[in-house]
Structure formats: structure tokens, C-alpha cells
Amino acid sequence: MQFLATCDPGLEEIAIQEVLELTGNRAKIHHKGAIIFKGKEDDIFILNYLSRSLNRILILLLHDNFKHLEELYRKIKSLDFTQYIYPTQTFAIRAERFGTHNFTSLDIARYAGKAVIDSYLQSKGVRLKVNLDNPNIILRVEVRDDNFFIGIDTTGEQSLHKRWYRKFPSRAPLKSTIAYGMIRLADLKKNERFIDPFCGCGTIPIEAYLYLNKIPPGKFRSFDFLKFFFLDRQKFFKLVEKSSREESREELEIYGSDISLREVEFAKKNAEEAGAKIEFFKADACELELNYDVIVTDLPFGIRTPKRGLEETYKKFFSNLIKYDWKKLVFITAKRRVNLVPDLGFDKIIEIKHGDIDALVFVKIR
After folding, report:
1. How does residue 303 score in pLDDT terms, banded at 50, 70 and 90?
2. pTM for the full predicted model
3. If one looks up domain 2-153 in CATH, what number appears?
4. C-alpha separations of 358 from 56, 171, 191, 336, 351 in Å
């Protein structure tokens, strides 16, 4: 099988590394925010259940170029959908479009949907039913300029970054996949003392705990591949059992602090949901003793503006930071706030997309 997996734009290399570690498959960048690789049926289960960096895994059916919607229709109609969709199952097209075109995403969905129905009717003599609200099979079509791809969504409507423990989000929560990417950039080890001094609702420390203890991020969620008749779902249940045996609940030196007591309480509740033993406490990052090995944090973007103001917060935090003998520092901030970040001789500065915000991840290893 050929797969296309989506990730946060800018963290493709982290996703490529994780796919190699989990499956042994060598992936490459397909486009910004997506990687492509060849694999086996088992990889559908492994990546959906165990991946911490990916948002969605598709079985890639076709990627090609086209000049007009009629050509897109013909190319999709040439595919054999009978090996993936049972005659009584419903389907839906989810279409996205990037670039300048004389048609909309709805037009793409309409042409692609007709192509699937006509292909199946021609092969099986059965007219597939469309269910836009709760389909058995989701087919994703993405158009970028004059290129397109179509794939079967094995994950489902809910992206993999939606973790079960996020019951109490802050006003500006960091995506769990970005938090994981930052932890990997810090190359965090079990014997290192770790802190997030702007922890908010606790996503970064919780992701660190889950990662180091091998607790699957896919626990307590459903996946669309469980509806697929062409997969051996017993393999998935065996994977769940195996992963459960490999989990640990080690007491690690992972800490989180925030100036807001409300956020600290939210972080504690989220950690409890995750079963993560993390010490959260109220503290001002600009005055906190930062005697830790690893510091990974999400600096204020301006959505949650501290009382002392952004400029003063950045100035005081970095003045406090350089007093201490930490080993690794990774933080994220909005690109528009880059003028507030002093030059610490960073090893990496990575441009990423955090929702609609252009952001930067800074990495410093001493």
C-alpha cells in the first residue's frame, strides 16, 4: 500500500523520523504538511494508534495532475473502489483546494463523488449511497494548483492530535502534535529534569510523560479503519494488547508551572485524565528558578497576554533564563513576536503553522 500522512507544516522531518521508528518505512515529504511512504496493512493500525506527530493517515489511491474537472472525474472514475467499499456501505467526499481555480471545493466534491458512484456502478452494478454526516468510508480529495490526490481516510473525522485527556483546554491551547514535536527536538530522556514554565493546561508536560512511558496517544478513541471489511482488524486488537503490556507509569521529574492558578488547576485535571504523574504548581516564569536539564515551553503569542504585557514578559523571562545552567531549550512563539526573542545562538529555528498562526520553534542545545 502507499500512504499519505498529514502532519503540522514545518514538522515533516519529525513525522518522517517517527514513521521510520514505528514501521521501518522510509517516508519523504509530499508537500508541506504531508509525507508519503509505502507500507503494509499493519502500518494503518500502528500509526493511527501509536503516532504522536501525525494528524491523519490515508491510503493513497492516486496522485496525478489535471487540467479541468472533467479530467479529474475521468481519472478518479478509472480507480477500482470495489476492493475498499462494500456495496451496502456509504461514503462521502471531503475536498480541499489550494491555489487559484475557477471552481470551488464543493465542485471538486461533486465531480469526485460522481466518479466514485459511476466507477462502482460500472464494476458492480450497484449505486453507492452518499452519507455526508456519518459515512462508513471517507474519501479525501485535495487539489493543489494543477495536482490532486485521492485517498481513503483511515483515521476519521477527528484528527489524531485530539487526545483523550484534553478535557480542560486553556484559551490558547497548543496542539498535542506540536508539543510532541518540540519534545523530540529537545531529545528528552528519562533521566532529565524537565519543566514547562508557561504550561497552560499542561499539554507539553503531559505529552512528555506519555512519550517517555510509551503510553499510546490513540487510547480511548475510535478509528474509521474499524469499519473497513478489507482489513484484518484482529491485528489491531493484538497491537492494543501488546502496547498495553509495554506501557509504564514511571515517576519522572516532569514539572509544569504557570502564573495563572486557573491554568494550573486545568493542567492537574488533564494530567489526572491522562494518568500522568506530573507536579504542576503556580509560579511566575520570570522569577522561577530554572535549574532544570530541559525547558520546553509555549511562550505567550498575545492571545493570553500577561498582565505585565508581552514585551516586558519576554524581556524578564529571557533575563531570568540566562541565569541558569540548563542543557536544552525549545520554545514556540508567533512569528510576529520574533523581535522579542534575544539572540541566544540557536541551533535551529523552524517555521511551523499553528492553526492559522505562522509560528517559529527555537532550539538551543548547550
Report:
1. low
2. 0.95
3. 3.30.2130.30
4. 21, 18, 33, 8, 7
